[in-house]
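Schema walk-through. Below, the input block comes first and the output block second. Nothing else is stored per chain. Lengths vary across the set, and this one has 132 residues.
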Amino acid sequence: MKRMLLLSVFTLTLCLAGLGAVGHASAVDPLDEVCKKNPTSTVCKENQSSASNDANPLFGPKGIITKILGWLVRIVGIAAVIGIIVAGIMMTFAGGDANQAASARSTITFSLIGLGIAAMAQVMVSFVISKL
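--- output ---
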């Protein structure tokens, strides 16, 4: 029991440290300085017109694929949380049965792994879509 508590505290600490370590990244527009000096140039006009057409129906912020992936990540997250809750109930009602407790522990482990994979998948897909 003590080992499980220490593992839980360690995992929570790692998760919180990971959330705090995430920084904000942004792209630099190489034409920004040029367009400030000469805003009427052809290149600047083309850059401004392409920037206004960011509403990609597939991959844009409101695109179909982005919405589907958002819903999939939500479903997997909800399923993982439900799995953790069910495993906690299983652990509570194990009544000293080692097999039930082991089954509950493995359910918690797999739920956390699934949650981590879903979170990393969302990060990777968001990164790729933002580069398209």
